[in-house]
Write a structure and sequence with these properties.
The complex is a heterodimer of chains A (about 190) and B (about 220). Chain A is mainly alpha-helical and about 190 residues long. Chain A is built from 9 helices and no strands. Chain B has a 6-stranded antiparallel β-sheet. Chain B has a 4-stranded antiparallel β-sheet with strand order 6-5-8-9, with no helix packed on it. Classes of the chains: A mainly alpha (about 190), B alpha+beta (about 220).
């Protein structure tokens, strides 16, 4: 009998309205969801918890929107988290304040979530590639992802043309995707 | 460096939520998923939520889904009145019809999750009424979509269905969930049989992967 992935089982149970499945998914993924929401929302106090709740309530309300054939539940939840957090950042027009606070500084090494990656025991090829990216690519990706900035805002923050920022992000993302695909096909 | 956006740019920008919807609207969902998978591997600096947030989230989630289950007491009263005047008969017939039904789907999870199957046999209204009145039967209201009855012998039916489309039936127990179907209702009814009916607490109706109604089973 073929093995059924935990994500697929969770999906089936959520679709059927199994409350215990919701609790299990929450306990497994809430720390990552809250971590990302906190990262993107920064100083917007209390909003990260709201985003986290929104994400899990929406999963419960529309469980069929997660398709295990299209990716892992973690990726799905984090994508939803990022999208909702970015919506809040932009809706509250905090971009300007965030940019002013960020100035033209790169990601603060003291709070950089990817710090110490090289000391990790090869947890993920993607993380290794991120750590090894040229700084200009890595910083652009981190500003877009962790701070929820648009290409335009990243360009303003880095004092670079928007096209340059887009090119750097594309180059870095493609390298990470290739690493992930290579990892998935290797035994 | 080319200023024109191509499919790859659109997919990356969509995955990063980094540009307007107008510019990324035509992004290939498959490629977007691939880049979201990449981002899902990036470190996020996990933050353990305060313990009370789980309860808050579950409460909010249950309230949201319960919206479809909040049938008015008026409708419940009407349902009981209708049941009283229906003909009492043919309980054994509905049992036989269900048991000999064609197997469409089977939940084979180990105990204590019940196993079950649905039947293609057309079940008449009188048979449903008999099932509802049988001692030990439990019933529930599936919002505006229909009703459910589950007898103590394991025979059950979703009836009075207002949806004429393939539906799956979720049988939720403390140990997990069994999903039967999907199957298209016959004359507004989906009949099923389950091997451990006492374990089933809640019944859900699923259409195209989304729960459209939920009913907690209660003594009839």
């Amino acid at each position: 009998m073929p093995e059924v992935s935990p994500d697929r089982l969770w999906s089936q149970r959520l679709i059927a309205g199994d409350e215990s499945a919701l609790r299990e998914v929450y306990r497994d993924h809430a720390p990552a969801v809250l971590g990302l929401a906190t990262r993107v929302l920064g100083s917007l106090e209390g909003q990260a918890e709201d985003v986290m709740q929104d994400v899990f309530v929406r999963l419960w309300e529309h469980p069929g929107q997660f398709d295990p054939a299209r990716g892992h539940l973690r990726s799905y939840l984090l994508a939803m988290t990022h999208s909702r957090a970015v919506e809040r950042v932009r809706a509250e027009d905090s971009q300007r304040r965030r940019l002013e606070a960020a100035g033209n500084q790169p990601v603060d090494p003291a709070t950089d979530p990817s710090r110490g990656l090289t000391s990790l025991d090869s947890r993920s090829a993607v993380q290794r590639v991120l750590a090894d990216l040229p700084p200009e690519q890595r910083i652009a990706i981190e500003m877009a992802y962790y701070r929820g900035l648009s290409y335009r805002d990243v360009a303003v923050a880095l004092a670079e043309p928007e096209g340059t920022v887009r090119y750097r992000i594309r180059a870095g993302m493609q390298k990470m995707r290739a690493a992930l695909q290579a990892e998935e096909v290797s035994p | 460096m080319n200023d024109a956006w191509d499919a790859e740019d659109r997919a990356i920008a969509r995955a990063l939520d980094a540009d307007s919807d107008d510019r990324t609207r035509d992004a290939d969902p498959r490629v977007v998923d691939e880049y979201r998978a990449v981002l899902g591997h990036l470190p996020v600096g996990e933050v353990r939520p305060a313990p009370e947030l789980e309860h808050r989230m579950v409460t909010a989630a249950l309230e949201r889904r319960a919206a479809t289950d909040n049938i008015t007491s008026i409708e419940r009263t009407r349902s009981r009145a209708l049941r009283r005047v229906r003909v009492a008969a043919l309980a054994t017939a509905v049992t036989a019809a269900i048991v000999v039904g064609v197997l469409l789907a089977t939940g084979t999870s180990p105990a204590p999750v019940p196993s079950g199957r649905v039947s293609l046999t057309t079940v008449r209204r009188a048979e449903i009424d008999s099932l509802v009145r049988a001692p030990g039967s439990r019933v529930g209201v599936l919002g505006a979509v229909g009703r459910v009855v589950l007898a103590s012998n394991g025979n059950g039916a979703i009836y009075d269905l207002t949806v004429d489309a393939p539906l799956a039936v979720g049988l939720v127990s403390s140990g997990g969930t069994t999903v039967l179907g999907p199957v298209r209702p016959r004359a507004g009814v989906i009949a099923f049989v389950v091997d451990h009916p006492e374990r089933v607490r809640t019944v859900t109706l699923i259409r195209r992967g989304s729960v459209i109604a939920t009913a907690a089973l209660k003594a009839g």
